[in-house]
Amino acid sequence: MAERFSFSIRATDGAARTGTIAMRRGEIRTPAFMPVGTAATVKAMKPADVRAAGADIILGNTYHLMLRPGAERVAKLGGLHRFMGWDRPILTDSGGYQVMSLSELTKVSEEGVAFASHLDGSRYMLSPERSMEIQTLLGSDIVMAFDQLVKTTDTADAQQAAMERSTRWARRSRVAFDALGNEGALFGIQQGGLDEGWRRASADALIDIGFDGYAVGGLAVGEGQEAMFGCLDFAPGQLPADRPRYLMGVGKPDDIVGAVERGIDMFDCVLPTRSGRTGQAFTWSGPINIRNAKFAEDAAPIDADCACPVCATWSRAYLHHLVRSGEILGAMLMTEHNISFYQQLMAGLRDAIAESRLTAWADQFRARYRGGR
Known about the structure:
Helix content: 40-55%
Number of helices: 15
Number of strands: 16
Largest sheet: 8 strands, parallel
Low-confidence stretches: none
Strand order of the largest sheet: 4-14-13-12-11-10-6-5
Strand content: 15-25%
Mean pLDDT: 96
Distance between the termini: 50 Å
């Protein structure tokens, strides 16, 4: 029987690491980017194409799936993997982020978060115990502890209180996860805003509880890249070196490169899929808006240095036409390119770390990405 969870580091280069997470549904090469499959689908892509692009793992969303179609229904239909046709690892978030970002009518208590559905206004209570139950019903491979997320711009008192409550909820998540006999892995989430002391307190408490991996939470919520990197200069090092470190909700390609340099192993973000649907393509020379008139007669691919099927087959002019016409194929091809680009980015980072040339690779990437051609 394949092992439940293990993490091995193949090579390091400065604070950066490359390695492998081994799980029963397959191996995850790190650093890894996880395409977001919010509602049991990576929008505008078939699962086989997501895999062909190079993704080893995708992310599902507890909040959205609990509301529609419902965790119990997914379990009745054989679990999330069978339901959506993806047979490799799935990480599910705990639901806390959407409770903060989507629901105006929320009430946070020690029990959990009471909120109104953004779909029909019906009331729900999401607690550490219910979050663990939902993620177990879905059949998640990597389950995230339930936490309270606040913005880095909130008051110091609010940030400290949320960090301390998240610690208590992490312990309850651990107990509930174990009681359910879940065969997957459980990750804790470090909180504490941009404060090094709070981050240290959060990390120490999570290590005391014990998790398979650890996430750096509460970033990429408007604080800007400089502040985020400032936090990442110390936060990953407060977490165990022998466990994966996951930066939640990040991000832009240059965000990812900088975070890898600071010791992060896992990422997720809606950016490549959402941007693809709105006409933005990521390239090695920076993002482009394919809707711009200058691409109407451009026979070149999105990126001549991209190895994806879209760049091998179609021109910027054709994609410009599709997107401007509102054709569904435009969203599909743009998304496929962006997901492929992100996976090529991760492969480049893994190779550079393994060959001890990350600094030069990252500097060259940034110069080209930010400067264009």
